[in-house]
Amino acid sequence: MKRLLVVSAHAADFVWRAGGAIAHVTAHGGEALVVALTYGERGESGELWKEAGQTLERVKAIRHQEASQAAAILGAEFLALDLGDYPLRMTEEAVERLRAILVDFAPQILMTHTPQDPFNPDHPVAYAITEKARQLAAGAGVASAFKTIPPPEFLLFEPHQPELSGFVPNLFLDITPVWEKKLKAMEVFASQAYLQRYYAERAEHRANHARRISGRKGIERAEAFQRVLPQVVDRL
Ligand SMILES: [Zn+2]
């Protein structure tokens, strides 16, 4: 029974990049919570803004409905902090709200964006907020003057252009058994339909890599992650 916390800069990021991981955790009886720092109402909702008379509040409402529906398909809860996008700002309020969520939910696994992304100003800020909140929630792994949680595993999910974002995968997850759920969750985002094909192709490429690394022939779809912290094991 694992608890997974996914911090998504914008309302839809979690689906493309970690939808399989979320569905995997919940399919095995675990709990998943998705925290979207913003709705991506300005920077990642371009199709919605093509409608005449569109408003910020309406775009946010549509994105909330879409993200909640996608999270439900994956078996996760969805929580939006509505901190504003393009630009998302690294504020003490943002860090404190996420720290409180971390202490309350106490995840064993924490996921977010890479610290670099030359194509998006908000994704690295989401990393910075998450990293600081993680440190404040877990302390230094020892007793502190404040309530702490055991340090969660810290993973980065795959950015849109991995090489240009300094992403080097060192963990592949076989998402073949939950692929249909991820596909259904991606289909919810009518406003970003062009990404569905892209991430379906990416899942096949990563499965090819995972098969070659492991020799496991049954892997048809995979997601790639990068560990921030070393893995601690009892035996090799
Ligand atoms: Zn995004």
Characterization of the model:
There is one protein chain. The chain is α/β, with parallel strands linked by helices. It has one domain: LmbE-like (Rossmann fold, 3-Layer(aba) Sandwich), CATH 3.40.50.10320. Helix content is 40%, strand content 15%. Strands 3-2-1-4-5-7-6 form a seven-stranded mixed beta sheet, with helices on both faces. Helix 1 links the parallel strand 1 and strand 2 (31-36). The radius of gyration is 17 Å and the shape is globular. The mean pLDDT is 96. Zinc ion (ZN) binds at residues 9-10, 13, 40, 44, 120, 123. InterPro entries: GlcNAc_PI_deacetylase-related, LmbE-like_dom_sf. GO terms for molecular function: hydrolase activity, acting on carbon-nitrogen (but not peptide) bonds, in linear amides. Keywords: Plasmid. This is Putative LmbE-like protein.
Low-pLDDT ranges: none
Name the bound molecules: zinc ion
Radius of gyration: 17 Å
Helix content: 40-55%
Keywords: Plasmid
Pfam family, one: PIG-L
Protein name: Putative LmbE-like protein
Organism: Thermus oshimai JL-2
